[in-house]
Design brief:
The chain has about 270 residues and is α/β, with parallel strands linked by helices. A seven-stranded parallel β-sheet has the order 3-2-1-4-5-6-7, sandwiched between helices. Helices cover about 45% and strands about 15% of the residues. Keywords: Oxidoreductase.
């Protein structure tokens, strides 16, 4: 269910759409938009009542939609909620992880990761991006991952989905370079969110290791978007890992990832 819609006459403030906004990086991104004077349309597959209250306390008008953005219906319902209004910024942050070996995963869970991280994200960008291009103005921030830079043994589908997001963002940025629409991809590493719990990766080395604060990650991505940068890796250690991944053989990277993501801390 959505809140009552805001008419264009009621809001002269810039408008941002943020997905995955109930917690973690998405919540922090929405908070930054609200602090900067944006009104918000926020979506997630979990309740948004507390987030809405927090964003409104910062002066934003907020519309919420709890929906499954892995579905065409979910994405279309979010787009319909915008109702033809000009979207100044889109933070496409919704995503799901999935741990364990590929052949041990439920295929329904696999499809949900693909349809959330790839299909739903692509569909939303196709709808909102066209409107931005027509207006000649807009900023798009995609939440990718440094996971997309390496083969994800024991998170194969998730890493592959983020490789898609990372690559897609650079291509779209190039296509839109003369249109007034900017595309930025935020590539965080392990972040202290509900991700590892929802992905079933609490018993892995990476799940139990040190993680970045989602507020810090969101600020890095938000400011990169404001500057119109193409990409940004959040965190010094993650920057080092990303640089190392660029010159390391894929087979070696897969083995490194295995040690980080194998269930049971990589021990039998």
């Amino acid at each position: 269910m959505s809140d009552s819609r805001l008419t264009s006459a009621e809001t002269a403030r810039p408008l941002a759409i943020v997905t995955g906004a109930s917690s973690g990086i998405g919540y922090e991104l929405a908070r930054l938009f609200a602090q900067d004077g944006f009104d918000l349309v926020v979506a997630a597959d979990t309740p948004l009542a507390e987030a809405k209250q927090a964003f409104e306390s910062l002066g934003a008008r907020v519309e919420t939609l709890q929906t499954d953005l892995s579905t065409e219906e979910g994405v279309q319902s979010l787009y319909d909620l915008v109702s033809g209004r000009s979207v100044d910024a889109l933070a496409a942050n919704a995503g799901h992880g999935l741990g364990e070996g590929f052949l041990d995963q439920d295929f329904g869970d696999i499809l949900h990761v693909i349809n959330t991280n790839i299909t739903g994200t692509t569909r939303l960008l196709h709808l909102v991006g066209r409107d931005m291009r027509t207006r000649g103005k807009g900023q798009i921030l995609l939440t990718g991952s440094i996971a997309g830079l390496m083969p994800g043994a024991f998170a194969a589908v998730y890493n592959a989905s983020k490789a898609y997001v990372d690559s897609f963002s650079f291509a779209l940025r190039n296509e839109l370079k003369d249109t007034g629409v900017s595309v930025t991809v935020l590539m965080p590493g392990p972040t202290d969110t509900e991700f590892f719990d929802r992905a079933g990766m609490e018993d892995t080395v990476v799940g139990q290791g040190k993680k970045m604060d989602p507020a810090d990650v969101a600020k890095i991505g938000y400011h990169a978007m404001q500057r119109g940068e193409g990409d940004v890796v959040a965190g010094v250690m993650n920057k080092l890992q990303a640089a190392t991944a660029a010159v390391t053989p894929q087979t070696a990277l897969a083995e490194v990832h295995r040690r980080q993501a194998e269930p049971g801390g990589g021990k039998h």
